[in-house]
Amino acid sequence: MDQFSSHPLYKKHNIDSVMNSLWEFYKKRFFSLIVVSFFMSLALQYASTLIDFKVLQSITDPVLLLEKLKDFIVPILIVSLLNLLFSTILQYYVLFNPLNHENNIFISAVKSMKFFIPYLILMILLAFTGSIAILLGFFVLIVGAFFALLYVFTIYLFLLPVMMAEETNIGNTIARTIKLVHKNLWSNLGWVAVFIIILIVVSLILSSIILLPFTGNFLKTILNNVTTADMADMSKNPIFLFLSALAGALTFPLMPIFASILYFNGRSAEDQSQRVDQIKPEDEKIKVEDLYAKPYSDDHPENPANK
Fold first, then answer.
1. Pseudo-torsion of CA 123, 154, 168, 275, nearest 10°?
2. Residue 306 per-residue DSSP state
3. Residues of the chain whose pLDDT is less than 50?
4. What is the reported pLDDT for 119?
5. Under a CB-based contact definition with an 8 Å cutoff, are residues 267 and 180 in contact?
6. Phi-psi category of residue 270: left, alpha or beta, with phi > 0 → left and psi -120 to 50 → alpha
7. I need a surface site. Which of 43, 88, 107, 278 has the fewest CB within 10 A?
8. Cα separation of 153 and 141, whole Å?
9. What does the radius of gyration of the chain's CA atoms come to, in whole angstroms?
10. pLDDT of the residue at 153
11. Contact at 8 Å (CB) between 191 and 18?
């Protein structure tokens, strides 16, 4: 029996059950998810302070600007690697903790490390191919670019759950992901679009609330009238770091939960289809000869020739 059949997110979903399952899972494990995500988000927020874009505002020479941007390559790589690392740990926790509570966040951190390097390679490949797809989408107009971006992001969400749950190599993970994405392509794209909109709205509201103590004007935060220099100054404020980490902790778990829902939806649909095929094996299907009466033997009492 498939170990994931007892997972609370494992079932064939519709748009209502997607959002309901997301909320129920999030609510049931709220405390553990928030605590873990807070420290992860705090580390990301602190690492982000290494990137000081304030110095770029006074530079007008494009050559000098490019030279200065080179200084940000290492900090940006650090933030990106931390984000991928924390995403890997949290995804493993969401997938395996409901099956066995011994898979706490510390055990998940250790066991998920074997997926980190393959996941990093997949992200590099996805970034390369995704950039080409989005660039080609621009030639079709903005709608094409938006569709390409949505498609690439959908593939991104499937990659890690597929690799972890099925323990496949990089090549099989890509093939399996594309198969699951295309199995219910329009549903997957639609659900991802709705999820992105919700995430953007929630993030904007939380960001506005965080900026309120520093701007003193809620309307100013809503209209995004905060300059880069203001953000650079605030990002070094310990209170701002704490509040930003808390806001990040509220949204950070949503991505791995939603990714798991997408994966389990495709997986359960496949499993249901396989069970239907097993109910009607080949030898139980109606054959052409079953439509005709079988001839009686010579000594059979119902044989018309004996009457």
1. 180
2. G
3. 1, 292-293, 296
4. 94
5. yes
6. alpha
7. 278
8. 19
9. 27
10. 94
11. yes
Looking up tokens 């033997």 gives 297
The closest alpha carbon to 262, from 112, 85, 88, 91, belongs to 91
Give the 3-state secondary structure of residue 116: helix
pLDDT value, residue 174: 93
Quote the tokens at residue 22: 């997301």
Q: Output the CA angle 183-4-190, nearest 5 degrees.
A: 35
- The chain-wide mean pLDDT, for the chain, equals 81
Q: How far is CA 122 from the centre of its chain?
A: 14
Pair of tokens at residue 141:
């107009």
Q: What is the pTM of this model?
A: 0.81
Distance CA 48, CA 52 (A): 8
d(CA 179, CA 133): 18
Residue 242 · residue 212 · CB < 8 Å: no
| Amino acid at site 136 | L
Angle at 273 between CA 267 and CA 275, to 5 degrees: 105
Among residues 203, 264, 269, 248, the alpha carbon closest in space to that of 90 is found at 248
Cβ pair 15, 194 in contact under 8 A: yes
**Rounded to whole angstroms, how far apart are CA atoms 256 and 115?**
15
C-alpha closest to that of 252 among 127, 126, 82: 82
Distances (CA, A) of 266 to 13, 47, 203: 9, 36, 28
Q: What is the DSSP string of 25-65?
A: HHHHTHHHHHHHHHHHHHHHHHHHTT--GGGGTT---HHHH
Burial status of residue 82 (CB atoms within 10 A of its CB: 0-12, 13-18, 19 or more): middle
Helices in the chain by DSSP H: which ranges? 15-28, 30-48, 62-69, 73-96, 105-111, 113-139, 142-166, 170-183, 185-215, 218-222, 228-235, 238-251, 254-279
